[in-house]
Amino acid sequence: MQEIRPWIGKPPIVDPPGIPGYQLMRAEQLNLLRASILGLLLVPVWWIVFALVVPLLNGTEGVSGTISIVNFMLALIFAAGIVVLHELLHGVAILASGNRPSFGAGPGFFYTTCHEPLTRNAYIGVVVLPVIVINSGAIIIAGIWPGTMGWMLFLSILNTMGAGGDIWMLIRLLRVPKSAMLVDLASGYAVYHPDQATAASPVDS
Fold it and tell me: For residues 180 and 176, what is the distance between their CA atoms, to the nearest angstrom?
């Protein structure tokens, strides 16, 4: 845990904790290499979506842009901003679930985590909110202001590349029953199912 540095709040949970009334079923570990590869594979898919949808909104024929030193410096600033916005949106989703987020950095990545159990649907919301908001926002902005198309494509591609782990988790979470609870871990997440013995026990009158 020395490599993971919390900026706001506490560092991620390492080992799956116990949850009253629930039984630990499994822990899923996020493979950063596979997540990065998935993010790269999603880029051409997103490029096609962007190139098809935006011209329908603003009537342009394609995406254009210029390369210069100024634009390169702006790109670095915007890239850092996208990383911050991406993690903040994870935090917004955690707050919407009634819990408190923590933020920090690890070797080669930034993270947002939560120390309280979340329902499956709430956890899915935390996972997908940055992709939905940033990429949809990029399309809307480019559709309204055609001059921003190049920048919006660039920023949404960066967000897509960084969302490989989120998409991997979404695919896995869709297989989790709605009755399950999840706990975010430093290496992934843990899945808990309701304890059948607890559920079957009689209620005291």
Answer: 7
What is the tens place of the pLDDT at every residue in 85-110?
Answer: 999 999 999 999 999 999 988 776 78
The string of pLDDT tens digits covering residues 116-155 is 999 999 999 999 999 999 999 999 999 999 888 888 999 9
Contact at 8 Å (CB) between 30 and 169? yes
pLDDT band with cut points at 50, 70 and 90 for residue 202: very low
Question: HEC states along 125-190?
Answer: HHHHHHHHHHHHHHHHHHHHCHHHHHHHHHHHHHHHHHCHHHHHHHHHHCCCCCCCEEEEECCEEE
Cross-strand pairs, 178: none
For residues 110 and 131, what is the distance between their CA atoms, to the nearest angstrom? 16
Contact present, 153 and 141 (Cβ < 8 Å)? no
- Kindly state the DSSP code that residue 184 receives in the 8-state scheme: E
The answer to whether 62 touches 111, Cβ cutoff 8 Å, is no
Measured CA to CA, the distance from residue 93 to residue 159 in angstroms comes to 17
Encoded amino acid at 161, one letter: M
Name residue 29's beta-bridge partners: 188
Which residues lie across from 106 on neighbouring strands? 109
